[in-house]
């Protein structure tokens, strides 16, 4: 049976994640309140942020930046693009 959650990002009941995708309290909040589709959208947005800002997930400052952006994206629906971003044609 599929686990469902009320997704704070999509504002509807949807299929929940299979496991907490992040450590600690934030991971448990994501697991309890974010659906699979919203998490997939975040992963796409995160990839764009990493590429456009030339971030390294190994750098602690870059990880902190991505964590803050993840919370904004998932819980406040802030989907700002980096300055100068031009989507592929």
The count of β-strands is: 2
The CATH architecture term is Orthogonal Bundle
Mean of the pLDDT scores?
91
Which outline best applies?
globular
The CATH superfamily appears as Fe(II) trafficking protein YggX
User: How would a crystallographer describe the biggest sheet?
Assistant: 2 strands, antiparallel
SS content category? mainly alpha
Radius of gyration: 14 Å
Unreliable sequence segments: none
Percentage of helical residues?
40-55%
Please write the CATH class name: Mainly Alpha
Give the count of structural domains. Answer: 1
Which strand-content bin applies to the residues? 5-15%
CATH fold group = YggX-like
What is the number of helices? 3
Q: What is the straight-line distance between the termini?
A: 40 Å
**Largest beta sheet: what is the strand line-up?**
1-2
SSE ordering: EEHHH
Descriptive account of the structure:
There is one protein chain. The chain has a two-stranded antiparallel sheet. It has helices at 24-33, 36-53, 60-76; strands at residues 4-7, 12-15. The chain starts with a strand and ends in a 13-residue tail after the last helix. It has three helices and two strands, in the order E-E-H-H-H. The chain has one domain: Orthogonal Bundle (YggX-like), CATH 1.10.3880. The protein has 89 residues and is mainly alpha-helical.
Offer a few descriptive terms.
mainly alpha, YggX-like, globular
Question: Concise description?
Answer:
The protein is mostly helical and 89 residues long.
Secondary structure blueprint with pairings:
Blueprint: E1 4-7, E2 12-15, H1 24-33, H2 36-53, H3 60-76
Helix pairs in contact: 2-3
């Amino acid at each position: 049976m599929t686990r469902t959650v009320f997704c704070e990002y999509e504002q509807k009941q949807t299929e929940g994640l299979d496991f907490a995708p992040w450590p600690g309290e934030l991971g448990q909040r994501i697991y309890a309140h974010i659906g699979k589709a919203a998490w997939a959208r975040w992963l796409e947005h995160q990839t764009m942020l990493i590429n456009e800002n030339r971030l390294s997930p190994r750098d602690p400052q870059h990880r902190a930046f991505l964590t803050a952006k993840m919370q904004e994206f998932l819980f406040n629906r802030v989907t700002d693009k980096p300055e100068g971003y031009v989507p592929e044609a």
